[in-house]
Design goal:
Layout (H helix, E strand, L loop, with lengths): L4 H5 L7 H14 L11 H16 L1 H17 L12 H9 L17 E7 L1 H6 L1 E12 L14 E3 L8 E8 L2 E8 L8 E3 L11 E12 L8 E4 L15 E7 L6 E3 L2 E9 H6 L1 E5 L6 E5 L8 E4 L15 E8 L6 H12 L3 H4 L5 H13 L1
Parallel strand pairs: 1-9, 11-15
Antiparallel strand pairs: 2-7, 3-6, 4-5, 8-9, 10-11, 12-13, 14-15
Helix pairs in contact: 2-3, 3-4
Length: 373
């Protein structure tokens, strides 16, 4: 039973045409033959994605599927047929007019891009600096120097295309049948083939390798941002430019802080007597603990702001603030002596002691905001 096309492309049933196209192209990039030469299922996976795209990119087919599923499509005469394509490269040619790496047929294809990830602590994100990432990418085969032939063996004219590198074929696309010129499925468009293919790369001239790259992380980078390294992606064909490396930054949560843009928010707890009298408290900062003065009469939820002690601002200079939220704790489990002192204090309270510049309504709104947070 075919899978749900929405599930295949990883989109919601409410996705629009642009989202569906973007999802398909992203999936196609992952299934590129240069990346998946080691995966015998790559072609079938792409055919499944292509079928899902054919269904969801056509308004009538999509409506039929949404109402009746795959059975409705079949009863209406729809039948995916990708068997006329000679190879997965032809499939990519049909949908994209060339490889996903940016190079068209008739010339060496540029290498595809590569994605990697780097996880940092909040302090590391604040400092920035040089970090190393490891990833897999397609490199030129060192054994055959990229020509696909065993060293010392000839490279001959392709018998299938007579050296042209291209073939005429009738192909079925989401837009109907058309006569088109496709890359030769034997030589891949080069017009030549190795008489004795390289045993290291099976004649492709490239092979998957493990790489390491040093990246410069700017101070203040945020979770989910990307860093691009030009030319550090998959190697291109026959000397064509390499793709790029995109490093996705993940910033681990820090239990001491909440990040809001370039500001950091932290919490300090203080007893009610100390809040009434004022006190010096220790608060965490990115540079270590620091003493902060809490003014006498500080109320629960009041904020002490340390200017410039937040995260560095990218491309703007300076830094955000550190906002210290004061949480006033009402003491529990009082001793007999403490209770006597509190009784005496309570008996001495006047309306002036309890007067505030904040209205009851403003207090209620602040309390509701705190509860929602």
């Amino acid at each position: 039973m075919p899978r749900d096309p929405y599930q295949v492309l990883g989109v919601e049933p409410t996705a629009d045409e642009a989202q569906i196209k973007k999802a398909f192209r992203g999936l196609a990039r992952e299934l590129h033959p240069d990346v998946n030469s080691h995966d015998p299922q790559a072609e079938e996976k792409f055919k499944e994605a292509a079928e899902a795209y054919e269904i969801l990119s056509d308004a009538d087919r999509r409506a039929t599927y949404d109402r009746y599923g795959h059975d409705g499509l079949r009863s209406g005469g729809y039948q995916p047929n990708f068997d006329s394509f000679g190879s997965i490269s032809d499939l990519f040619e049909a949908f994209f007019g060339g490889g996903t790496g940016g190079g068209g047929r008739g010339g060496p294809a540029a290498g595809a891009d590569v994605a990697a990830s780097l996880d940092l602590d909040l302090a590391e994100a604040a400092r920035g600096g040089t970090h190393e990432v490891a990833y897999e990418a397609v490199d030129r085969c060192d054994h055959c120097k990229g020509n696909g032939a065993e060293p010392g063996t000839p490279i001959e004219t392709c018998a299938r295309c007579a050296g042209a590198g291209r073939l005429q074929a009738v192909t079925r696309t989401p837009f109907g049948q058309m006569m088109r010129t496709v890359a030769c499925d034997v030589c891949g468009g080069d017009g030549r083939v190795a008489a004795n293919p390289c045993h290291e790369c099976r004649g492709r001239g490239r092979r998957l390798a493990r790489r390491k790259a040093s990246i410069q992380v700017p101070a203040g980078i945020a979770d989910g941002q990307r860093i691009r390294l030009t030319g550090a992606g998959h190697a291109g064909e026959a000397g064509a430019p390499a793709g790029d490396l995109y490093v996705l930054i993940g910033v681990r949560a820090d239990e001491r802080f909440i990040r809001e843009d370039d500001d950091l928010v932290t919490l300090v707890e203080i007893s009610a007597p100390h809040a009434a009298l004022g006190a010096t408290v220790e608060v965490p900062t990115l540079d270590g603990p620091e003493e902060v003065e809490v003014a006498a009469g500080t109320q629960p939820g009041e904020v002490v702001v340390l200017r410039g002690r937040g995260m560095p601002r990218l491309r703007r200079g300076g830094a955000g603030d550190l906002r210290v939220v004061v949480n006033v704790i009402v003491p529990r489990r009082l001793t007999r002596e403490q209770r006597k002192l509190y009784d005496k204090l309570a008996g001495s309270m006047t309306a002036e002691n309890l007067r505030t510049d904040e209205s009851v309504f403003a207090k209620l709104k602040r309390a509701l905001r705190s509860h929602a947070a």
